[in-house]
Amino acid sequence: MLQKFDDGLSDMRAGIGMWRVWVALAGEDISDQHRRTTLGPLWLLINYLAFAGTFVFVFRHGDSGATNYAAYVAIGLFVWFYLMETVNQGVSLFLREESFIKGTTLPLSVYIMRLATQVTIRAIYAFAGCLAILLVSGVDLSPAWGWSALGIIVIVVTTPAVIILCAFLGAYLPDSQFIVSNLMRLGMFLTPVFWMYEGAGGVRGAFYFWNPFTYFLEIVRAPILTGEVPICALALCLGIGLAAWVLALILFAWFRRDVVFVL
Amino acid sequence: MVSITVDNLSLVYRLRQPWSLSRLDRRLPGKQTRISAKGRHSFVTALDGVSLSLKSGDRLGLVGTNGTGKTTLLKVLYGIYEPTGGRVAIEGRVDALFNINIGFRREATGRRNIELRGLINGWSWQEIEEHMQSIIDFSELGDFIDLPLKTYSQGMAARLAFSVAVALEPEILLMDEWIGAGDQKFQEKAGMRMDELAEKAGIIVLASHNNSLLKRTCNKILKLEGGRVAAFYDNIDDFEE
């Protein structure tokens, strides 16, 4: 068991050391996805702005009279798109990389880091749109934004662990690709991405409090919108991140060498 | 000193049917099989008690019908599969050509693929730049090098794959069948390059069904049957086509 952990950590170290490879491959992935388009990756920004604009105009009056609803949706969508992309792409990662995994000796962690880099690069385009909406909606830059930056760092650091968990799930349970993508679609409506919880309890309260995604949204959104530091949400996200890493390392150590036989 | 030592190698893996919501296939394997059942699980014995020893300059041909373990043995030597029994000791830098589509990106140009393969193999950008022209020249792709790989014929892709692999100057080169791709002229050129590699005290292991190619290229033959060594010809002249 200890030997497996040691081998798993060696794989991680070797993979992280090959940063040139995963950065280059992540860049290739993104340019492949937009190769034939005129606007290229700018479509990511347009896609984000189209969603954010639609939600703001459709729900601003009906759902909430909050003055900074545009900023609320902008940050919510930015974080949600990142999380959704991580989970959806992660669950099919090993299946997509089958030929490389079966034909090269690249450390498995290279694929993990490649996807983590890819989703981060894609999120940068949405981030540009998010910043633009924040500025237009009149949100002032304040020191509290530093806490939001910390929240983003917590999410980014948790990302490889989530990818590992999703990738093994997808490899060993192929049906999970469809289950997970449908759950994530539903999740957008069950998570306070564009709706606000105003303490009335009920079903909406249950979805707010028992949904872990809520807290990953809040650690980025609350400091910018309210200037408050969401200590509890931050602690919870750190705890979830730590648990995800522990579980991911166990799975990685245990199944890393076997995954080639299930693909 | 470049060498490969394989001692009583075995590879048994659990046939993991991915957990699925679809109906299980409960058909039993036939009698002539290497699939065994233990409890609720099935196991495949891919390699069983394989031993061999290769030293500098050896060119080993792997023969056997489909499914006898040739590719599996190559993948164990390359480090993709971890043996479940026995010992594998390899001295030397290894590279492999299993499939011309593996390790290459169809959408990227030939030049970009060379860069990516260089990075994967641990080259710096400067090293990639230094090798770039010689790889392009050897591949004879000319202006096609700046076109996407997906526009290449099988032979052109094989030329690129081989050119990159030999430019990496591996001390041990593992190849699986692929050499049949490419035209006669390139095959001869590739054969000469392999000779050079072997003469530089390297080792080549080539799996193929083409016995005349093996006789021309190799000096030793290992015949596999059912994952086991059926015969080992230390002298190529003893091997009957």
- Lateral strand order in the biggest sheet of chain B: 6-7-8-4-9-10
Rg of Cα set of chain A: 19 Å
User: What is the total domain count of chain A?
Assistant: 1
Query: Helix count of chain A, per DSSP?
Result: 13
Helix content of chain B: 25-40%
Mind telling me the CATH superfamily name of the largest domain in chain B?
A: P-loop containing nucleotide triphosphate hydrolases
The class by helix and strand makeup of chain A works out as mainly alpha
Could you report the average pLDDT of chain A, rounded to the nearest whole number?
A: 91
Report the portion of residues of chain A in β strands: under 5%
The CATH architecture of the largest domain in chain B can be given as 3-Layer(aba) Sandwich
Radius of gyration of chain B, rounded? 19 Å
| Overall 3D form of chain A | globular
Largest sheet of chain A: none
What portion of residues of chain A is helical? Answer: over 70%
Number of helices of chain B: 6
* Largest interface summary: A-B, 25 and 29 residues
Unreliable spans of chain A are none
Number of strands of chain A: 0
Q: How many structural domains are formed by the residues of chain B?
A: 2
